[in-house]
Amino acid sequence: MKKKLALLAMAAVLGLSVTACGSDDAKDDSADKGAADSGDAAGDSASGEVANKDKPLVWFNRQPSNSTTGELDMTALNFNENTYYVGFDATQGGDAQGEMVKDYIEANIDKIDRNGDGVIGYVLAIGDIGHNDSIARTRGVRNALGTAVEKDGKTNSDPIGTNTDGSASAVQDATLEIGGKTYTIRELASQEMKNSAGATWDAATAGNAIGTWASSFGDQIDVVVSNNDGMGMSMFNAWSKDNEVPTFGYDANSDAVAAIAEGYGGTISQHADVQAYLTLRILRNALDGVDINTGISTADEAGNVLSEDVYTYNEEQRSYYAMNVPVTAENYESFMDSTEIYADVANQLDESTSPSKKVWLDIYNAADNFLSSTYQPLLQKYDDLLNLEVEYIGGDGQTESNITNRLGNPGQYDAFAINMVKTDNAASYTSLLSQ
Ligand code: BGC
């Protein structure tokens, strides 16, 4: 039910015809790969026979990449034959978020310009200026609204500080014609929401920022946009709910979806239910020595399989990407529980063919709303179904060593799932596995 609605929403809102370009390619990655041999270790402890450097490894949520240029870190993505990234299609998602905001403005033009000055002003909360997902969302919003300017051949995603007079150089004023009237669209302010200790995507910082912005130019703010729901909800609760200013986020966390009934403008589901499954399923398959796409593009014995329209696999990038779905007043009721597992992959694996294995998995920031309230609860449901004993490590969101220090004995584990603090830092993990 949920899936059908999601697909309808995706097709309708985005006009997309998604062909999972990679899943066929992915079938080529077959059982003859490395960690196949680790599958015969019985019981629930690491076999000790497989070198740490050959154990399955999944990067998730933060793709190994250069945080300045966005270039993928292919060394990390090819660490061994059973290394992959699991995330979502950041560009498609960023575009969907931008379109969602634009559609809302167009549909509500008669009431959106709160001070009637003909300028639709929005403020933007940026998560992490060095994170591909965050950059894609900033770009998607600016592209859709027409406020984007180019920098080095790409949409500039830099924060602008404040821009109440429209003079900022990283964005431009746009015009939008609706019902014979021309409106200006202006990015009034944007800021990376990083706290003083260095944690990014920081919800509390966003809550403070909206207070500061509102007290100096509050009546000019007609729309609030955020790179994620954690920050979006913080701004909504601090200011926009009371002032009836539509606020848009990303992630479809349960609290944000529920808030749509109270005026939250909308959010995007990055299909965390599919991503969490892929994160653990790839490890499972590698440990069992079966085709890496078992239970993904082809059904496993328990009947688990993903349809091609909810993810793509990019072989060159060694990356699985879930697709995004807009969640708005129109369809939010079917997204109320963000921790509900994906119905098509909800079947328990047989312990005789998929015996218990130990996985080390970290969440870079235990306080991150999306990862703690949506992603980890999903992982915890799937780990049971997949017979994986997962040790969850929670980081502080700012210190990589706080996490790597807890990977002191990789020999105790059969496989690893890593969520980095900084996307440049893959080597600080792989070096521990190579020793
Ligand atoms: C999510 C954010 C989250 C970030 C953490 C993004 O994909 O949308 O909510 O803070 O990942 O890396």
Automatic annotation (TrEMBL):
It comes from the Bacteria. Transmembrane segments: none annotated. The keyword Transport applies. Residues 357-426 form the MglB-2 periplasmic binding protein domain. Residues 24-49 are annotated as: Disordered. Residues 24-35 have a biased composition (Basic and acidic residues). Its main location: other. Pfam families: Peripla_BP_4 (PF13407), Peripla_BP_7 (PF18610). Residues 1-22 form the signal peptide. Keywords: Signal, Sugar transport, Transport. Residues 80-289 form the Periplasmic binding protein domain. The keyword Iron does not apply. InterPro entries: Bact_Solute-Bind_Prot2, MglB-2_Peripla_BP, Peripla_BP_I, SBP_2_dom. It is found in: Cell envelope. One of its GO terms (molecular function) is carbohydrate binding. Residues 36-48 have a biased composition (Low complexity). GO terms for cellular component: outer membrane-bounded periplasmic space. This is Substrate-binding domain-containing protein.
